[in-house]
Model the fold of this input.
Amino acid sequence: QVQLVESGGGLVQAGDSLRLSCAASGRSFTRDAMGWFRQAQGKEREFVAAISWSGYRTYNTGSVKGRFTISRDNAKNTVYLQMNSLKPEDTAVYYCAAGDSGSIVAQSSYEFWGQGTQVIVSS
Done:
């Protein structure tokens, strides 16, 4: 069974850091782009960051630029999201996803999704 499992979320204070992990199983995702998306309460799910299958190109949304860094370890079939200088507006459920076609920043490009991990940033 193909599965993506996020971990590393939690309750932190503004200014703190967290590192999210997404472990894939059931198949190799070395030829897939990997992305992170988030959904805050009462809002639509939005793009956060993505990384190409090679790991040589990364993308991120303007609201997290300079604070979040995406990376991947293909040997471990795992993608990470390092989040620094967290703000209350970063509070959301964070999802990882994998896909091999389409725009790397578009949700429709991703075929496989995890169940999400909760991040809560207090003020």
